[in-house]
Amino acid sequence: MRATRAVIRLANFQHNIRELRRHMESQRGGEAPQICVAVKADGYGHGILRCAEAALEAGASSLGVAAVSEGAMLRDAGIREPILLFGIARKGELEELAELGLSPFVADETYIRLLDEAAASAGVKLNVHLKVDTGMGRIGCRPDEAPRLASQIQHAKRLRLAGTATHFPVADEDDSSFTHEQIELFLRTVKHIREAGTDPGVVHAANSGAIIGYPDAWADMVRPGISVYGYYPSADQKRTLDLRPVMELVSEIVFVKRVAPDTPISYGCTYRTPQETVIATIPAGYGDGFNRLLSSTGRVLIDGKTYPIVGRVCMDQFMVDIGAKPECCVGSTVTLFGPDPAGPNAEELAELCSTIPYEILTGITARVPRIYLD
Ligand SMILES: *Cc1c(COP(=O)(O)O)cnc(C)c1O
User: Fold this and answer.
1) Probe residue for ligand 1, chosen from 88, 164, 223 as the CB with the greatest number of ligand atoms within 8 Å
2) pLDDT tens, residue order, the chain (374 aa)
3) Residue 204 Cβ contacting ligand 1 at under 6 Å
4) I need a surface site. Which of 221, 265, 289, 305 has the fewest CB within 10 A?
5) Domain map of the chain by residue range?
6) Which of 63, 65, 86, 103 to mutate to test ligand 1, by most ligand atoms within 8 A of the CB atom?
């Protein structure tokens, strides 16, 4: 196997789910809401199947995906629990969606009618969740349309309103009045659905940011993603939970060479060694999802010590300055990011790349084998 691999600690993943439940139970002083774990985008890069199975084992009651194809993978593996489809399916996918028994978010009249027809031709009854847009500006009906759409679903022969949901764009910002207003608007909308004579089903809204910072948003069910993979959604959020990174991206030194002062390193010759030193080559690069913006700015962890990345990150390799008297050698394990507090984690990489940990994790490409521990 290639030296570069993503070690996935499922024990940390399950710990994070239990930690979210513990947090909600202690804040609520009672039973925690149900948990729908987002496993979209190949389980945020960790592998959709193993994460889905581990999530259900740790007490998740349902799973969240973005595409019908992702739901198909879970069903093909024998998973029978509810699978929420966060995205909108195309017309040509609706029959498959119905046969798979996915539970789609719906937000307009036409889509509801098409789903009812697809469910009829597949001979099934489908659970759907009405998605209300309270400020995300993405999929979702206007709050004033919600009671009418809820009633349309209730009267559709082949559909059942299993839930009513919304989504937050800034719940990872501490104490945002925008989020508080969204929560109020959402709960008022749910009340209007009830007053119009329709059971809204399971009421849910909270992503990781709202699970951590907005107990009023928990309702009947929460939908964590990034937090179960071990990261806070943003650097702003208070670190009140014990979240443990699940993925460790590791490689090893495959080549070392002693070089003279002023030796150029990598494409563009943008880096020159300030003095005599030893340069190690690591067989990982942006072709593995190790971002090129880490060129001459990132660091790696080798035997408990950190070393700087020097020169540009190439597609398949990058270089590290291990010093004139190196303590590591060919074959030494290199951690590119992971849970070890001494080394970089995906949040540090995200900051260096002006992005978010989500993109660092989902960006690890298919070339990198996922190795599961536990
Ligand atoms: C991805 C997603 C989530 C999870 O969000 P995190 O910020 O990763 O916790 C929840 N709900 C919906 C609709 C999503 O698309």
Assistant:
1) 223
2) 899 999 999 999 999 999 999 999 999 998 999 999 999 999 999 999 999 999 999 999 999 999 999 999 999 999 999 999 999 999 999 999 999 999 999 999 999 999 999 999 999 999 999 999 999 999 999 999 999 999 999 999 999 999 999 999 999 987 799 999 999 999 999 999 999 999 999 999 999 999 999 999 999 999 999 999 999 999 888 899 999 999 999 999 999 999 999 999 999 999 999 999 999 999 999 999 999 999 999 999 999 999 999 999 999 999 999 999 999 999 999 999 999 999 999 999 999 999 999 999 999 999 999 999 97
3) no
4) 305
5) 10-229, 247-373
6) 86
- Please provide the CATH number assigned to the domain covering 10-229: 3.20.20.10
Q: Give, to the nearest 10 degrees, the angle between helix 68-76 and helix 48-57.
A: 70
* One-letter amino acid of 25: E
Residues 6 or more apart from 355 whose CB is under 8 A from it? none
- Residue 115: both structure tokens together: 């789903």
Q: Check if 62 has its Cβ closer than 6 Å to any atom of ligand 1.
A: no
- Does residue 208 have its Cβ closer than 6 Å to ligand 1? yes
- pTM above 0.70? yes
Closest listed residue to residue 346, CA positions, set 284, 280, 303, 290? 290
Same fold, 10-229 and 247-373: no
Domain 247-373: give its CATH superfamily: Lyase, Ornithine Decarboxylase; Chain A, domain 1 (2.40.37.10)
Give residue 233 CA to ligand 1 midpoint distance, Å: 10
| Catalytic (active-site) positions | 40, 267
Q: Is the CB of 225 under 6 A from ligand 1?
A: yes
Q: Is 231 in the pocket of ligand 1 (CB under 6 A)?
A: no
Q: Is the dihedral of CA 65, 67, 68, 74 positive or negative?
A: negative
CA–centroid distance, 225 to ligand 1, in Å, is 5
Tokens of 348: 């540090």
